[in-house]
């Protein structure tokens, strides 16, 4: 009996240590899945299966959100996991969507056709690098700049919707190319901008919601069932415009407050005249941008 007690005492820490190691591996395994989905989406794009490739990017965006949540849940966040996730995102969300746009309709434009997708890739990599160095600075409720998966989803939804309705055949290639180029440039700039985007990290599904939110949710659900291509486009575009819309609303409110005060010096305060990138609680002034 006395010899069994030390053995059991030694086994339990080993079991805990083994579980801990496996827990650290789980988020990285999910990140590998994200990376492979992006790579296979490129292969599908080269085969001409553009819509299936875009759907894989959407799946990868969902998977990308899972690894971070799982790491926080298991308390296994690490610098390695953060950097590995960013490298996977460069491939899946920074490279795949602009490459699909190039393969679909931009290849005929020559240098412009590959320069704009390259600009998207560079901005995506810059956005991810900035996010990594600002992890301990920004307000966790918001992202500074449009998240790279969201920008990839918006560009992918444009491709999916355009292929679905046969936009190039219906309207001609030039209008579609112009819209795709302009959208790519705008999404690229939004990624490296200072506009705030809600991160949904503190969203509580068990929280009580008012009945007023049921109607928009029902409308979005109905759109997803009837017109999935339009659903992807509306949701992704709406989120992409969230940041500029939030900034514009804040600026209009401040303008209204200043006009009501009347006696204040219009030039006395410059707060809010720049995009409210990290202006939320917990952000440090002077460290808003790299």
Could you list some keywords that capture this structure?
Four Helix Bundle (Hemerythrin (Met), subunit A), disordered C terminus, globular, 2 strands, two-stranded antiparallel sheet, 71% helix, 290 residues, mainly alpha
Question: What report would you give on this structure?
Answer:
The chain is 71% helix and 2% strand. The chain is mostly helical. It has one domain (10-202, 212-261): Up-down Bundle (Four Helix Bundle (Hemerythrin (Met), subunit A)), CATH 1.20.120. The protein has a two-stranded antiparallel ribbon with strand order 1-2. Helix 1 (4-46) runs parallel beside helix 3 (79-106), helix 2 packs antiparallel against helix 3 (79-106) and helix 3 (79-106) packs antiparallel against helix 7 (173-191). The termini are far apart. The model is unreliable at 264-290 (pLDDT under 50).
């Amino acid at each position: 009996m006395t010899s069994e007690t030390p053995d059991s005492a030694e086994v339990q820490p080993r079991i805990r240590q083994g579980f801990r190691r496996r827990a650290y591996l789980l988020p990285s395994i999910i990140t590998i899945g994200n990376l492979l989905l992006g790579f296979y989406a490129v292969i599908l794009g080269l085969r001409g299966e553009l819509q299936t490739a875009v759907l894989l990017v959407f799946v990868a965006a969902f998977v990308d959100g899972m690894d971070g949540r799982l790491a926080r849940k298991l308390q296994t966040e690490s610098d390695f996991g953060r950097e590995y996730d960013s490298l996977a995102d460069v491939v899946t969300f920074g490279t795949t969507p602009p490459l699909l746009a190039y393969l679909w309709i931009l290849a005929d434009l020559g240098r412009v056709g590959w320069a704009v997708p390259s600009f998207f890739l560079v901005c995506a990599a810059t956005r991810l690098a900035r996010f990594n160095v600002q992890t301990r600075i920004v307000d966790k409720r918001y992202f500074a700049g449009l998240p790279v998966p969201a920008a990839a989803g918006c560009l992918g939804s444009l491709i999916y919707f355009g292929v679905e309705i046969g936009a190039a055949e219906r309207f001609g290639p030039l209008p579609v190319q112009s819209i795709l180029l302009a959208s790519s440039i705008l999404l690229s700039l939004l990624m490296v901008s200072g506009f705030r985007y809600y991160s949904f990290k503190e969203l509580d599904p068990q929280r009580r919601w008012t009945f007023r939110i049921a109607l928009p949710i029902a409308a979005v659900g109905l759109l997803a069932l009837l017109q999935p291509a339009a659903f992807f486009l509306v949701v992704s575009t709406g989120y992409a415009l969230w940041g500029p819309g939030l900034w514009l609303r804040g600026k209009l409110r401040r303008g209204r407050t200043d006009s009501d005060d009347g006696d204040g010096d219009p030039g006395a305060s410059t707060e809010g005249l720049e995009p409210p990138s990290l202006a939320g609680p917990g952000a440090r002034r002077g460290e808003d941008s790299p």
